[in-house]
Amino acid sequence: MSAAAASPPPPAAAGEHLRFHLRGFLSPETCKELEFVHRSCGTAGYRPSVVSTSLPHLAATGCGHLLLPFVPVRERLRDAVESAFSCHFDLFIEFTGLISWCKGASIGWHSDDNKPYLRQRAFTAVCYLNDHGKDYKGGILQFQDGEPSFITPVAGDVVIYTADNSNTHCVDEVTEGERLTLTLWFTRDSAYDEDPKLLSFLSQTSLNYEPVHQSSYIPLPASDIMYWFAYDHSGFDVRCARVHILGFSFHSSIDEDNKSVAPAEDDPIELLGKPVRLGRGDDVFDKVFANGLHALQVVQFYYWKAPELSAKRKQTSGGSGTVCCPVSQSRGTKLPLPCNHGLEQTIFGSHKNVEIDFEWSDFELAVSMWENYSEELQRKLLTFLPYWLSSEAIFIVSSCSPQVRTEGN
Ligand SMILES: O=C(O)CCC(=O)C(=O)O
Ligand SMILES: [Fe+2]
Question: Which residues surround ligand 1 with Cβ inside 6 Å?
Answer without folding.
Answer: 107, 112, 126, 141, 169, 171, 181, 183
